[in-house]
Amino acid sequence: MGARDTIRTAVANVVPPAGLTRALAVQAMVYAVGSGLFHAGSAVFFTRALGLSAAQVGLGLSIAAGVSLL
Predict the structure, then answer these.
(1) Does residue 17 come out as left (phi exceeding 0), alpha (psi in the -120 to 50 range) or beta?
(2) Would you give the DSSP letter of residue 49?
(3) Which top-level group of life is the source organism from (predicted)?
(4) What's the number of CA atoms in the CB half-sphere (13 Å) around residue 6?
(5) What is the pLDDT of residues 2-34, one digit of tens each?
(6) What is the phi/psi pair of residue 49, to 5°?
(7) Structure confidence at residue 1 as a pLDDT band (50, 70, 90)
């Protein structure tokens, strides 16, 4: 079994079958990547552009997350 067969087997075990299941998995992946980039970018924006300290940004984002859960 070569490297290509190993990779194909691994991908076949991870990727859902074609159709609605695969489309939803791709949508979830795109959403997760976009959300992660947004949150990382917002922390950089708050510290660089607005001049807030890391502690202020952490506290503010924690309070916002807590409020959003309620």
Answers:
(1) beta
(2) T
(3) Bacteria
(4) 3
(5) 788 888 888 888 888 888 998 999 999 999 999
(6) -80, -40
(7) low
